[in-house]
TrEMBL record, chains A, B:
Keywords: FAD, Flavoprotein
Gene3D superfamilies reported in the protein's UniProt record: 3.30.465.10, 3.30.70.2190, 3.30.70.2740, Uridine Diphospho-n-acetylenolpyruvylglucosamine Reductase, domain 2, Vanillyl-alcohol Oxidase, Chain A, domain 4
Source organism of the structure: Ramlibacter rhizophilus
One GO MF term attached to the UniProt entry: catalytic activity
Protein known as: FAD-binding oxidoreductase
Cofactors required: FAD
Amino acid sequence: MTALIEELKTLVGAAHVLVDGDLSAYEVDWRKRAHGKALAVVRPGSTGEAAAVVRACAQAGVAMVPQGGNTGLVVGATPDESGTQVVLSLQRMTAVRELDAANMTVTVEAGCVLQSLQEHARNAGFLFPLSLAAEGSCTIGGNLATNAGGTQVLRYGNARDLCLGLEVVTPAGEVWDGLSGLRKDNTGYDLRDLFIGSEGTLGLITAATLKLYPLPAATLTAWAAVPSMQAAVQLLGLARRHLGAGLTGFEVMGQFALGLVARHFPQMRVPFVQDSPWCVLLENADHESEAHARGQFETLLERALEEGCVTDAVVAENIAQARQLWHVRESIPLAQAEEGLNIKHDISLPISRIPAYCEETDALLLREIAGVRLVNFGHLGDGNLHYNVQAPEGGDAATFLREREEAVNALVYDQVRRHGGSISAEHGVGSLKVDSLPDYKSPVALGMMRAIKGGLDPRNLMNPGRVVRP
Amino acid sequence: MTALIEELKTLVGAAHVLVDGDLSAYEVDWRKRAHGKALAVVRPGSTGEAAAVVRACAQAGVAMVPQGGNTGLVVGATPDESGTQVVLSLQRMTAVRELDAANMTVTVEAGCVLQSLQEHARNAGFLFPLSLAAEGSCTIGGNLATNAGGTQVLRYGNARDLCLGLEVVTPAGEVWDGLSGLRKDNTGYDLRDLFIGSEGTLGLITAATLKLYPLPAATLTAWAAVPSMQAAVQLLGLARRHLGAGLTGFEVMGQFALGLVARHFPQMRVPFVQDSPWCVLLENADHESEAHARGQFETLLERALEEGCVTDAVVAENIAQARQLWHVRESIPLAQAEEGLNIKHDISLPISRIPAYCEETDALLLREIAGVRLVNFGHLGDGNLHYNVQAPEGGDAATFLREREEAVNALVYDQVRRHGGSISAEHGVGSLKVDSLPDYKSPVALGMMRAIKGGLDPRNLMNPGRVVRP
């Protein structure tokens, strides 16, 4: 292995092959659940260097773990504990290669931080709509490798839907230049979408061409109290009809989740938390004017009040108020952490099944664990719930997790399967869910995934042990 | 083979295994370029029957050719001339299995005709936005297998973007039930998008779950005279900013193309055809009201007149006028046929490159062939041109095609490659382009395509000779 490390130093420079010192930023995952050990962390500075590094590793038969901002939630981008895997860090490849205003596209290297790209686009008068909690640290390459979701999916889709082309280093170290700025291209299999969401197991994404959108003229936020999850689903239908593509956000939050925010962050005002079992945050992005957006929101909310799916509502008066409302929504995970460890799920369901799912699963959990508390919130417009389970009031959270996590997961996921849902809506599989996936995924689908992995990475050197086992 | 045919009759009923009589509807392609001969045409009535048919053919080592409405333009769905291939016709599997209003999805069998699905959705108060010339005959399965485009791609995307889940019979005859109504699902490789656009070479699509949208409150159409292709690109940028997601159509048409319509269909009024080198048809679908849509259009067109990218414009006063304008656009291919045989291309380019592409390629063609006439029109909003080449005035079209087609294709496609475009934007590869694809596609991409084909269809029984050769 010494020979390989020397070769890697020749390829990218000794300063960019890390073997000593504290490498925990590369070896420990975001939620600190896995503590790996790398043979080396290699940071190529260009696509050519990245390809040379992959060829050298492949020749030595050494497994590689692609890594962007290392903000993933399913232990998909850190090395295992063996000390035999090379981390391929993209963090030096951050260039915006081209912004094509007439084509409304931007071509960017994989290591570019999401927030930098958002700002670059905004400075050119465009919106790059991908937006998620980790945007200050996560990278475009990681966003694409995991098909990231976030808060704007309802209107703009997942990371997949924002990507027109990719540049990829294959497991053999060849470069596929698929950096197309084309909106239509039917010349063969959709390799782009195969790499997107494959979590680095089929190759290394080094750059991407992404869609840009016009900046909206005004973005307004509203907060509505709704009497039930069924009413929230009804409000979603109304909002889609009244606001059309203007509806860019539709977040649902349960009373207990909002109560945790009110309890742990008493300086925040949480509208309607006392009286309403559910609240919904709506966002309306208008290409015309703020006045128009406000009129649209008012018409919608009046109609919803008449139909009884909303009991009360406020529309933010200005950007500061809108930010406060979003801040409440975004503070739920922190408030949960303040309350203590809990069992997290990132599930999706057909929207029509969500009310029944929640009612049944809440009841089953309460029957199993008296007093268990449900922190339920999520992107209702995408059918995506963060259906989290917190220990009973006063119970010991660590014990709860140790004793109950497996059974709770089984119950929650079995219900997901029964309602035609997914056990990973936006976080991916990684190594955390690789061994439970076969319980919830069709064996025919898994067989095809294995055939594809075998065809594209026959020696299983790219991020082994993630997504699918040979 | 007699034994196989007897077995197929047992599986689907003798009436649905066609071997005698006139089978040209299944054996000859839409443009009548290829006259094949099938071993048999089999019409399964259910997914179970389809899987049994595939298993029987696979066991006998017989190649299969999936077929929907047989409206494809690249000879991808008819059997070769050997008489050894079985056509799998989906035309009996037409059921709409479920329309889920709250989830805004519809699940439909592959043989359902596109227009039937559009009507089914409309009757339930929804829009299914896929729309193309062959919609009265083409099927959903074929639309997905070829990733069909059409006139609404600018707003709603290609067929790929409208699909959430698939049911597929694999080349071994297993059924993959991937009929998900989920908008987010990150549990492994994106098999859905791999099958979409694979033109029946990886498996047989038997059903799909598709997205629905709210019906717009009003749809308006405008027709603008623009002084150049560059001005058309500028108008597109303005329209995207002013109309946002309301902009559902943006079709560009050259003066010669429109002149053919005026010449061969003198009863049609073709606005501005005398005076303007290019015209643009714009469509604005509004979720609010017709008055709002009209106001938006007027603001946009005034601004465009001020900026000089539009020299004159009309907005249709009513639906009848709007239909007339679309009818002019849709009559271009017919007018071309009236004028005589011509060399057709379905290319895409980055939108920013289109003005230079047209200027250069027009000049190169005119240098090669004095008096050659260019019928240029297409979906500019998607970067998709139908850049067609017609014989010089008075020249013999058949001779022109025979003598010039190969050289013209090479010139047009070399220019496409030079400008980063695609030689097949929406029609696919089929058998028509399978052997020219390697000249225009990256060998790394082709290598990955072969690996995938080999992994999923190792015996090359599914639509062999299409898209990629082993």
